[in-house]
Amino acid sequence: MNYRLPLLFVVLISFFANLSAQTDTLALTGFAIEVPASGNTETVWIMANDANANGLVPFSINDKDTVLQFTNGRAEFALNEEGATGLYFFAQTLKAYDFKLYHFRVEDAQVTTQHLPLWLSILPPLIAILLALTFKEVLSSLFAGVFAGAFIVNGMHLDLIPLSLFNTIDKYAITAMLDSGHASIILFSLLIGGMVAIISRNGGMQGIVDKLSIFAKTRRSSSLITWFLGIVIFFDDYANTLIVGNTMKPLADKFKMSREKLAYIVDSTAAPVASIAFITTWIGAELGYIGDAIQTLGLDQNAYGMFIGSLEYAYYPIFTLGFIFMLIWMKRDFGPMHKAELRATTAKTGPTDHSLDSEEVKTLQMKEGITPNWLFAFLPVLTVVVVTVVGLMITGHDAAVWANVDMGFLTKLSTTIGNADSYRSLLWSSLSGLLVAVLMTVGGRLMGVMETADVMVKGFKSLLIAMIILVSAWSLATITEELHTANFLTSLMVGKVNPYFMPAITFILAAGVSFSTGSSWSTMAILFPIVLPTTWTLCIAAGIDHDQAYAIMFNVIATIMGGAVFGDHCSPISDTTILSSLSTGCDHIDHVRTQMPYAMTVGAVSIICGGLLFYLRLPWYLLYPAGFLILYLIIRYFGKPVPETLEA
To answer: Is the model's pLDDT at 312 over the cut of 60?
Structure first.
């Protein structure tokens, strides 16, 4: 691939976007800017055109929400960036969902303000996504998206292109890596990678494959086992993805299941299950967002009750799990996935492992002379699962919760895990699993200390490219937050529809935000505080009775979560999508390309059931059978059979 093409593409788009930006020296939509007469550029004054203006005006500086206190039409703020030539400014006017972007540039005691059209905020993720899908190379595409975003943040001044280039590393990559949650995911992935390398080399993985082979006689049965494991490990999507993907990869190869199909099953069971299960690392965030909305609106409800009520409308997660089962059971596929399955079935050699190079593949194969033993893999993996759950219980324990006699056991358990520190729990579990693997390998005299350490390091190295991709994706997510991409998408749709259409609109909005940012969690964090109050207000204004208003609210809660997961499944910059490619050894772009048609199929059916048919007042217990029937007919008439592969 010619790596100059993505960069040229970015420069051209940024250049033409620059032409649409408005530059002036003192005008700022009702405000004026001046530098104190002393020439001190550490403080900038913002003055209202009306000298009698008083009060607070909300806005953001450098992505930090704050307000200006106007007194006699005048307010001030300080420039805090070291050596800054520009200052990023985001203002929300008194009109709801009317957002504006500004860039300040201070030179020689002169301030130049530049109004940046908010539609520019969609360019960085759009560039990254289009380039990744066009050139099938994700690293340079992500870099191009981050560079384009940095260029926009810096006011799109051509003389600041070098600074924008350096900001991709010294600002955005560093910010992504310094985030404690991101650092935890990197360490967790590396430790899991080291553990997987050891249990592959010591014969444990082969032993697991041999044991599962008792039940897996065909591609269908091995696929069903993968689907089942994806549901069983429900408590965290990251742990689910890495454990199931790495465990089932050898079995998938044995029955010539394509890596694309394996990655799809792994990816599309992890987040859907985690988003709707009662006891997961997601539940705390979800209940927190719902609880904040309840408090804001003064509703006579509790967060957990509304979450339970929303599960009636969790169409996308539930339809996804059922759709996977039907694909496997009916032995049919369509679109790019069917081609991938045919290629894997007819290939004379096994699938190429895109997570390891050829030398590392040889290193991580079972050592010669070792008898496969499933316990050498099962116990480390079991350790990861058990320690994760125990860690969640420890970090989320609240004595007051467990002493509350009015709460049921499941409520207490869900509350505890919801309040837990999932990142610490995952770090504890991955380190524990690695230590168990090392002790069993060395103690069983399967490999020496030095050889075990060497294999562990090889496992770390196998994840290098994936970690770079993750950091790049997180850097791009930081850009989208700084440019308020989600606010732009929200402003296009929210508050302009019939309340009964809010579930469908919300699903599309959540999907767009999640697809653009690559994060289900950030999508929920952004939309819950905006959409829930808006929906309830629309319902009351339309004269809808409370029971039906609550039904719409439950549906909207479910569609925020479902739309976020759907957009995450379609996005090539999603961290869980990247981890699924990593754990299954599938080429990342191939995974996105083959998964997207399936996700869009289920997403369309979810919108039909949760939106159109809900508008017709059909009850949920009729909508689920209708949705599954539609999916069945799609597979039956559009799916094509894939030749079965029997056990050798």
So the answer is: yes
Mean pLDDT across the chain, nearest whole number? 76
In a domain, 182, yes or no: no
pLDDT digits (tens, 9 = 90+) for 328-356: 999 999 999 999 998 887 765 445 555 44
Q: Which structural domain, as residue segments, surrounds residue 34?
A: 22-116
DSSP string, 421-486: -HHHHHHHHHHHHHHHHHHHHHHTTSS-HHHHHHHHHHHHHTTHHHHHHHHHHHHHHHHHHHTTHH
Q: Are 309 and 550 in contact (CB under 8 A)?
A: yes
List, for residues 94-132, the tens digit of each pLDDT value.
Answer: 344 455 666 666 555 455 666 677 788 888 888 887 776
The CA distance from 221 to 329, in Å, is 9
- Classify residue 81 as exposed, middle or buried by CB count within 10 Å of its CB (0-12, 13-18, 19+): exposed
- Rounded to whole angstroms, the Cα distance separating 438 from 453 reads 8
Spatial distance between the Cα atoms of 143 and 645, rounded to a whole number of angstroms:
41
Last residue of a domain, one of 89, 116, 143: 116
Count of domains observed in the chain: 2
* 95 DSSP 8-state letter: S
| DSSP, res 198 | H
Instruction: Mention every residue, 6+ apart, whose C-beta is less than 8 A from residue 430.
Output: 187, 188, 191, 192, 195, 384
Q: What is the pTM of this model?
A: 0.66
CATH of the domain at 73: 2.60.40
Of the residues 76, 95, 116, which one is the last residue of a structural domain?
A: 116
